[in-house]
Amino acid sequence: MDIANSIKDKGFYYIPDFISEFKVNALLNSIKKLNSEIGKDKATVFYEGKKLLLKDLINFKLKKLLKSSQIIFSKENNFFSEISSNIFKNHYLKRIDYYSSSISAEPIINWHNDISYSGAEKVVKKFHHPNFYKLRFFLYLTDVEYKNGSLAILPSSQKVSSAVASLLYDKKIEYKPHWSLQQFCKYIDSLDVKDKLINIIGTQQYNDFVSNTGFIFNKNDTDQYDVQSKKGGLVIFDDRCFHRGSNCSKSERSVMRYIYSSNSIN
Length: 266
Hints:
Layout (H helix, E strand, L loop, with lengths): L2 H8 L1 E4 L5 H18 L5 E4 L2 H9 L3 H11 L2 H11 L5 E11 L7 E4 L21 E7 L10 E3 L3 H13 L11 H8 L2 H11 L1 H10 L13 E2 L6 E5 L4 E3 L7 E10 L4
Antiparallel strand pairs: 1-8, 2-3, 3-10, 4-9, 5-8, 5-10, 6-7, 6-9
Helix pairs in contact: 6-8, 8-9
């Protein structure tokens, strides 16, 4: 199964040793020099539209502007754009950043998906098109494992969350907060959502999702879905999938994040 088809089916794809340790170290060292200019433990944003590049130019952040250009026009990012073109009808580069997570007993982020309005009590604007989502490319610059910065992804969960998004967009169900995995499981088990959801995804897909997420009501986490990686590994995932970033118990996690977005009418 090729990369695009795997992402469409499972929601993610992992490539070990995507870049060499030498390239990892060179990239990490150059970025940490930039971090010393803007403050430690903060995300360094290299691209978020042309306005950011212009702002860096106006503020004479020439080292950062040069690094941004190198990253944007790198062969790695060209590869990410090619993968995105095989999944989206139309796509655009939304953001590139570097992010470092410090040692902590708390998860980087708990189980959630990225198309559920961050758990807002009410959606003020109209619901977005169900085909609007993002591909996220996580390039690890440090080793990660369970309880030390690894990303966990619930396979094929994008099919369930996108079906819910479709029901909301078509005004067939009432909105309730469903950003966290626990909220979502309760939401799709409600009488006004369950039958309509099964009509879209089928009973088997629904039951598989319920079975795969049973841990959330027991011990609240599992290592079953973690993608453990050495530095230089790459994880590509559909952000409609439920995912979680584990805590960093041993060392900080450093990652380059490349985000490509669909157009809402794809």
